[in-house]
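Can anyone check this?
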Amino acid sequence: MSTKTNWKGVFPAVTTQFHKDLSLDLDATARHLEVLIESGVSGLVMLGSLGENVCLTREEKREVVRTALSTSNGRVPVLGSVAELNSNAGAEWAKELEDLGAQGAMVMPAMAFRPDREETKAHYLTVARATSLPIIVYNNPISYHADVDPEMFKELAEQENLVAIKESSGDVRRITDIINAVGDRYALFAGVDDLALECTLLGATGWIAGIGLAFPKENQKLWDLMMAGEWRKARELYRWYTPLLHLDVGTKFVQNIKLAIQEVGLGSEYVRLPRLPLTGEARDRVLAIIHEGLEKRPTLD
């Protein structure tokens, strides 16, 4: 690999930008990536839930990954996400990500399937064994109906390229439970924006951020304060940020965050079906949160 991945810091889950006709807008995606890199992020996660992975063709996914790799040009690692309908397809795409030159992969459960415990483990092992790429296990039982609990992470620990966990169960107690079960075997990433401070305080060393796509400087400042142990300053910034961080939660989080990106001039709100842009009261509510955040935006040191 040309870029070594240090599994610490902010790894934003980047949106895929579209034109009005919903074709890929790779230029807009590249411009946004440049802003994120300049803000100080430690890595880029492409084609996650915010990247609308399952709404893209395989060739479109390749184009997005190539764009990210070209834009980064080795400055930060680029990870591609694996969100396929079955494990074999996930393994094939993980191998292809490696061939494209990605520095890692974030792997979700098989889409549209409710696995039991053994099926969940078999999925992650099947994908991991197909590639030498380091892998982040994305644990989000609320959205994807598969829960990788601390005991399962202990059982998966022998697979060496499972190196990190995006913990999105919504239960911050999991951070401590995982550490108690497996120590520092995995790098732990906060996966829910409005629990980032709590997860970091308990031992997470990374953050796969969402709303930070619209507020990259503030997001990075919060991270830096937390890493420096400046908790009073971090809490103050977090209290301003929290209404915006709440936009990362719920079924409309992609629309919410893309709307925020549009409002700050870093992209557009266009989403692909089955998602539709926010309208009516829902749109007004989110815009009010975004605009209030912009009005009260703190001055950074």
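Reply from J.R.: I decoded it. Residues 280-295 form the longest helix (16 residues).
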